[in-house]
Predict the structure of Bifunctional protein FolD.
Amino acid sequence: MSAKILSGTDLSAEIRSEVATGVVEMQEKHGVTPGLAVILVGGDPASAVYVNNKQRACEQAGLFSDSAQLPDTATEDEILAAVHAFNEDPRVHGILVQLPLPGGIEQHRIIESIDPDKDVDGIHPYNLGKLMQGRPDFPPCTPAGIVELLVRNGHDPEGANVVICGRSDIVGKPLAALLMQRGRGGNATVTVCHTRTRDLADVTREADILVAAIGRPEAITADMVRDAAVVIDVGINRVDDPSARRGYRLKGDVDYEAVSQKALAITPVPGGVGPMTIAMLLVNTLTAARIRIHGRHHSG
Ligand SMILES: Nc1nc(=O)c2c([nH]1)NC[C@@H]1CN(c3ccc(C(=O)N[C@@H](CCC(=O)O)C(=O)O)cc3)C=[N+]21
């Protein structure tokens, strides 16, 4: 058997065009153009690629976009000042601070300085609290993208055993919360695995839906996957490849070749979860603009 490929490239294009329609409607009805600001600290080339992708996606969907690029020597106060400036900027509805921040910066202080109404990443404690209560305004982008990939491809997590490998604040933990909540994309039975999990393969083999968010290339091998499982690969590992255009290749956290022989469906890397993350960032930015216009209760 060869797994069906769940294309994030295709679905993200669909969602971005839905956002574009929403943007035009908002401009016509309210004269408002939703805007996103990205703050990038330091010169990590991978981060710069994502920031460029985000800005290009904004422009294509008709959103306003701005960015602040600070050197990796930036102080906490300088980063706080950049956040504050976008908090006060009326053209900006959403703010994303690219993580991780350089060592020595108190990441939580920066995140907590973001206006929760502009926190389109959904990582401010206020928004994470609402997520835990099953009423998120801004579901974190990568988890939200994974839920859309599942639901819109006919793999509703309701009643399924979902195993998530990885417990980060930005992927594993919020994804578990989304999948276990009541309502659309939820009602799953969720297990979260991590570096201290005993007999990991015994746990992953129970998964109807397996999510790999580990950050190590090909960590999930075929023997860890149940027949006909749906496999979601969140990994975006750069591995050296002198024959590649850029000198590296992207590899997921899943051994794609072997696992796709066994799975029912699988996301590729690149072209899977990555583009979905960006699409959901635009969705959340449109939501943030709606909230500014109508208040938190009518944000849909
Ligand atoms: N506050 C915060 N929020 C984030 O959402 C966030 C972050 N920090 N820090 C870094 C990670 C990573 N991330 C990606 C987004 C898009 C692609 C993406 O578009 N990937 C393409 C390929 C990109 C390439 O060619 O390198 C793909 O998978 O097809 C990848 C990774 C968001 N992140």
